[in-house]
Write a structure and sequence with these properties.
Elements lengths: L2 E4 L13 E3 L2 E4 L5 E7 L6 E7 L7 E2 L2 E6 L4 E6 L9 E7 L2 E3 L13 E3 L2 E3 L5 E8 L5 E8 L7 E2 L2 E6 L4 E6 L9 E8 L2
Antiparallel strand pairs: 1-3, 2-8, 4-5, 4-9, 5-14, 6-7, 7-8, 10-12, 11-17, 13-14, 13-18, 15-16, 16-17
């Protein structure tokens, strides 16, 4: 396997206003990659908290969340300052290699229309996940839909569905009955499984 991500910390309890650090180590053979921390609260929705590019020397920050990225040591810890009740969740560390390409420019859509966003990807691995995220003007990235490479059935989530073509390495997002709250930037990502 070309890459691996490891989290060894058990469940923990933290008081409000405390600072907590979550550890993650990784292994990869490539030099160009992205690292992510996700938060999955009890509601089950997966939310991207922060991302770090391997080639950026400055550690990423996002409000009360920051990372300590040590490329040489292959470690990527998440620091949560001034913990709040809303921080109660499962936290997941992820690594993305490979190439994902979106070529569509900004577009205008009328309410109730159907929209398709295209994405292609390139990987030699066979065990991966593909994701579509929505980043509204509020700037918080929200997971819309996820597709496992080994599932033949295309994923659906309410008005959102995908057309996953493994052989063609394409992964388009279809939004049915567009609504005003769909106005956002849409991003797709690929993450490998162990």
């Amino acid at each position: 396997m070309a890459q691996k991500v490891t989290q060894t910390q058990p469940e923990m309890s933290v008081y409000e206003a405390e600072t907590v650090t979550l550890d993650c180590t990784f292994d990869t053979r490539v030099s160009n990659y992205y690292l992510f921390w996700y938060k999955q609260p009890p509601s089950g929705e997966m939310v991207l908290i922060i991302r770090q590019e391997a080639n950026k020397q400055e550690n990423a920050t996002n409000n009360r969340f920051s990372v300590n990225f040590q490329k040489a040591d292959k470690s990527f810890s998440l620091r949560i300052s001034a913990a709040q009740l809303g921080d109660a969740a499962m936290y997941l560390c992820a690594l993305m290699e490979g190439t994902v390409t979106q070529t569509q420019p900004e577009m205008s859509v009328h309410e109730a229309e159907t929209v398709t966003l295209d994405c292609t990807f390139d990987t030699s691995d066979s065990n991966y996940y593909l994701f579509w995220y929505k980043q509204p003007p509020s700037r918080e990235m929200l997971l819309i839909i996820r597709q496992e490479a080994n599932k033949q059935e295309n994923a659906t989530n309410n008005r959102f569905s995908v057309n996953f073509q493994k052989a063609d390495k394409s992964f388009s997002l279809r939004i049915s009955a567009a609504q005003l709250e769909d106005a956002a930037m849409y991003l797709d990502y690929m993450i490998y499984r162990k």
